[in-house]
Amino acid sequence: MAHNALDLRGQKFGFLTALFRLPETENRYFLWECRCDCGKHVQVSTKNLTKGIVKSCGCQRSHQKQSTNRIKGKRFGRLIALTATKKRSYKGSIIWQCKCDCGNITEASADALLHGNKTSCGCRKNELKNSIHDQLTFVDSTCIEWLRSRKNRKDNTSGFRGVYESHGKWRVSIGFKKRRYYYGTYDTFEQAKAARLEIEKILHDDFIAAWEKWLEASKDDPEWAETHPFEFNVQKVNGKITIQSNILDSTL
């Protein structure tokens, strides 16, 4: 089938929908009556449609020009839009090169800038992350506030943290200081839940108690704290979890 004889009825080309083919022109080109998303009708050749040369009635060029005037040199959060690139987002939005207040050069789509979805090169996100980290208490890579406020999880097979169904049984495990400890398999969910709460007391609650006791002692005697750093080490030997601490000692 010749290129001009392609049946484009109902097909979408950018913002244009091909409606019907017009009679052949003197140059042996077929024109298609097209409806633009803005509502206007325009006649476009088969070649210009299939090659992507024409994608709208012209309204998008005007829209892009207006968008450019709204963006170039303007500030969006910490970003100043410098120049429009030839890149486009998956939605067709122009990608802009921007300068952040921190000095970094980054890229952002016009949509992201106008809708406030992009306001920095990423430095603000890092600052917020560091700010949150500074407000929390981390001891041996363990967040005290997280242990105090831990809640039941919904992303496992039971809905209770650390309890998982496996082949009709219930497995229990617990994470602590960047490691995960297996704590047995139980016949019922209630048994597994009780076991999980039991190991939480040994690893989590006792860890908090030991830390608070050491912290209080260090305030009363700073010199003692320098020679007695906080210790709370976990070992699993022959199925038993043992705590070695200079504050508390527990074995399970």
Write the layout of secondary structure elements.
Layout: E1 12-13, E2 16-21, E3 31-36, E4 41-45, H1 46-50, H2 59-71, E5 75-76, E6 79-88, E7 94-100, E8 105-109, H3 110-114, H4 123-135, E9 138-139, E10 142-143, H5 144-149, E11 163-166, E12 169-176, E13 179-186, H6 189-220, H7 222-227, E14 232-237, E15 240-245, E16 249-251
Antiparallel strand pairs: 1-2, 2-3, 3-4, 5-6, 6-7, 7-8, 9-10, 11-12, 12-13, 14-15, 15-16
Structure at a glance:
The model has no long low-confidence stretch (mean pLDDT 81). The chain folds into 3 domains: 3-57; 69-124, no CATH class; 136-251, no CATH class.
Polypeptide structure, described:
The chain has three domains: 3-57; 69-124, no CATH class; 136-251, no CATH class. It has helices at residues 46-50, 59-71, 110-114, 123-135, 144-149, 189-220, 222-227, and strands spanning 12-13, 16-21, 31-36, 41-45, 75-76, 79-88, 94-100, 105-109, 138-139, 142-143, 163-166, 169-176, 179-186, 232-237, 240-245, 249-251. The chain contains seven helices and 16 strands. The model has no long low-confidence stretch (mean pLDDT 81). By secondary structure, the chain is an alpha+beta fold. The strands form five sheets. Strands 1-2-3-4 form a four-stranded antiparallel beta sheet. A four-stranded antiparallel beta sheet has the order 5-6-7-8.
